[in-house]
Design brief:
Elements: H1 3-12, E1 21-26, E2 38-45, H2 48-61, E3 65-68, E4 74-76, E5 81-88, E6 95-97, E7 104-108, H3 113-122, E8 125-126, H4 138-144, E9 147-148, E10 151-152, E11 157-163, E12 170-174, H5 186-190, E13 193-200, E14 202-203, H6 206-223, E15 230-233, H7 243-249, E16 256-257, E17 260-262, E18 269-272, H8 278-296, E19 305-307
Parallel strand pairs: 2-5, 3-5, 4-19
Antiparallel strand pairs: 1-2, 6-7, 7-13, 8-14, 9-10, 11-12, 11-13, 15-18, 16-17, 17-18
Helix pairs in contact: 1-2, 3-6
Length: about 300
């Protein structure tokens, strides 16, 4: 372990209890792909004060680090990650309605999308149904402007509470100033960390909302390989087309390397059929990109975030 990591961990332990500072933590347990070697450390942070202290420590030591959410969009190297992974928990898992405006809801960055959808359904708040099946957290969804079935997180987010990358400043940024675009937000450009998001919904009958959520779940289960670990859509949607259609047209459904396979059910997904390594997934992705480019002239770009690895 590098000296900067060791020194940062020593500083972090002055604020975060040792039981939440996990050394050589396998990342396969923290990603939906169920793939990834050990991070030098994974720190579970319970509140803003702890997060500020952790960021101050890694900044002071120049330690490589990154924030992760539910790990539903990550492919981590088989060698792991040489720095410190930071994962939000505790108070970042809270969700509540605004006491002054019942149509507004504040959700911590660590709240799962599925839990958010359930909370909004119970409270008769509509507009989030599209996101009910996205297997990520609010923070990750805002970071990448997650979307499905014609909706995107930008459609409901009004304000985002963020912390500067060195942990020194917390501020609110409006949804308009987040510069949301397809699978992109200002957070990717500026490097700040998302703490929570305030969303504005519309009132509706809970049973009607639940029916729409159930309908989308049925569509998703019928079309997507939900029974296998994956990181969702592997490639971004190219201009003027769909990655899944291009992959299928190139005859790549079922293409497999080791335990990684282009799903027979939905060719936009690379799945872990059992025991897949990061290198297996990368080999499938490389072949898909090469074949699709050869056939169509379109170079697919990964939607999954590659951590300590590359195509």
């Amino acid at each position: 372990m590098r000296d900067s990591v060791v020194k940062a961990i020593e500083m972090i332990r002055e604020t975060v209890p040792e039981k939440r500072v996990l050394i050589d933590e396998p990342m396969r347990g923290h990603t939906s792909f169920r793939i990834g070697g050990p991070a030098a450390a994974l720190v579970l942070v319970n509140d803003e004060a702890e997060l500020s202290a952790v960021l101050a420590a890694v900044t002071a030591e120049g330690t490589e680090h990154m924030m992760i959410g539910n790990g539903s969009n990550l492919l981590v190297s088989d060698e792991g990650y040489p720095g410190i992974m930071i994962k939000l928990a505790g108070s970042f898992e809270s969700i509540e309605r605004d006491a002054d405006d019942p149509l507004r809801v504040k959700a911590g960055a660590a709240v799962l999308m599925s839990r958010t959808a359930a909370f909004l359904t119970e409270n008769g708040l509509s507009g989030f149904e599209f996101a009910s099946g996205i297997p990520g957290s609010i923070g990750g969804a805002v970071f990448m402007n997650a979307g499905a079935y014609g909706g995107e997180i930008k459609d409901v987010v009004k304000n985002v509470r963020v912390m500067d990358p060195d942990g020194t400043n917390v501020r609110e940024i409006s949804g308009e100033d987040m510069r949301f675009s397809y699978r992109h937000s200002r957070a990717q450009d500026d490097g700040f960390l998302i703490l929570s998001a305030e969303m504005e919904l519309t009132p509706d009958d809970p049973s009607e909302i639940a029916a729409r959520v159930a309908e989308l779940a049925a569509r998703r289960n019928a079309k997507q390989p939900v029974a296998y670990p994956s990181a969702g859509s592997t490639f971004k949607r190219p201009v003027g087309g769909y990655a899944a259609a291009l992959i299928e047209q190139s005859g790549l459904k079922g293409f497999k390397v080791g335990g990684a396979e282009v799903s027979e059910k939905h060719s936009g997904f690379v799945i872990n059929t059992g025991g897949a390594t990061c290198e297996d997934v990368l080999a499938v992705m490389r072949h898909v990109r090469e074949k699709v480019f050869e056939d169509s002239g379109i170079l697919l770009e990964p939607e999954v975030r590659l951590i300590n690895c590359s195509l």
